[in-house]
């Protein structure tokens, strides 16, 4: 038997898709990766973000996410780690050279960066705790399995949509990167995106 009622799952899918389509930090991060590194790293970053979203679902299902919601200090520690990491990525983008045509190392780093940026965004934890339980049926049992099912749906949808956004940005960046000056501009644009995400996270409140 499926852990989730099929009718509830059908109701969840459009709601999750609408959330995935809403431009946010994850999508902007993939756009920044696409502009600077190309389509492969953009998809890799989206994969890291998708894994992070699934881990958030696992944490929420295990009840650990409630600790973050209940302890402002823990929330702030995670938040400032995320801010510092995003600022480090911004500095790295400013210093980076033009990307190679094939950059497998960049893809590995992009996956890691996407995962860490997602995991260090405490608002994702609180969002998971606020949104997913609306669709969880306690009476049906298998609460953790239900959380993981919904988290998987959100992860798959986010992977596709964020990856497409990053790949589109990569196409724009490739057409523009015809000179060293334009390449430097793309690096600055990526750095600006990461710095803006850091500022957004720094100003985040627990509301």
Helical segment count: 9
Largest sheet: none
Q: In what range is the share of β-strand residues?
A: under 5%
Number of strands: 0
- What is the end-to-end distance? 37 Å
Low-confidence stretches: 99-103
The rounded Rg comes to 18 Å
Helix/strand class: mainly alpha
> What is the number of domains?
1
Task: Tell me the quaternary state.
Answer: single chain
Helix content: over 70%
Mean pLDDT: 81
Overall 3D form: globular
| Order of SSEs | HHHHHHHHH
Describe the protein in words.
The protein is mainly α and 207 residues long. It has one domain (26-202). It contains nine helices and no strands. It has helices at 6-21, 25-37, 39-62, 65-70, 72-95, 104-119, 122-131, 143-176, 180-202. It starts with 5 loop residues before the first helix and ends in a 5-residue tail after the last helix.
Chart the SSEs and their pairings.
Layout lengths: L5 H16 L3 H13 L1 H24 L2 H6 L1 H24 L8 H16 L2 H10 L11 H34 L3 H23 L5
Helix pairs in contact: 1-8, 2-3, 2-6, 2-8, 2-9, 3-6, 3-7, 3-8, 5-6, 5-9
């Amino acid at each position: 038997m499926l852990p989730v009622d099929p009718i509830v799952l059908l109701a969840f899918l459009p709601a999750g898709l609408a959330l995935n389509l809403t431009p946010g930090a994850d999508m902007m991060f993939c756009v920044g990766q696409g502009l600077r590194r190309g389509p492969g790293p953009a998809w890799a970053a989206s994969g890291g973000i998708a894994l992070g979203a699934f881990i958030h679902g696992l944490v929420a299902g295990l009840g650990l996410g409630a600790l973050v919601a209940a302890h402002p200090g823990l929330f702030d520690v995670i938040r400032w780690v995320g801010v510092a990491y995003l600022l480090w990525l911004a500095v790295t983008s400013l210093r980076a050279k033009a990307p190679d045509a094939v950059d497998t190392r960049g893809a590995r780093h992009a996956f890691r960066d996407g995962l860490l940026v997602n995991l260090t965004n405490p608002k994702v934890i609180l969002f998971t705790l606020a949104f997913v339980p609306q669709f969880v049926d306690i009476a049906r049992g298998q609460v953790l399995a239900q959380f993981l099912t919904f988290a998987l749906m959100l992860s798959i949808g986010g992977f596709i949509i964020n990856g497409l956004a990053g790949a589109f940005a990569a196409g724009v960046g490739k057409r523009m990167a015809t000179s060293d000056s334009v390449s430097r501009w793309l690096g600055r644009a990526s750095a600006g995106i990461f710095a803006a995400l850091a500022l957004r996270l720094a100003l985040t409140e627990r509301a």
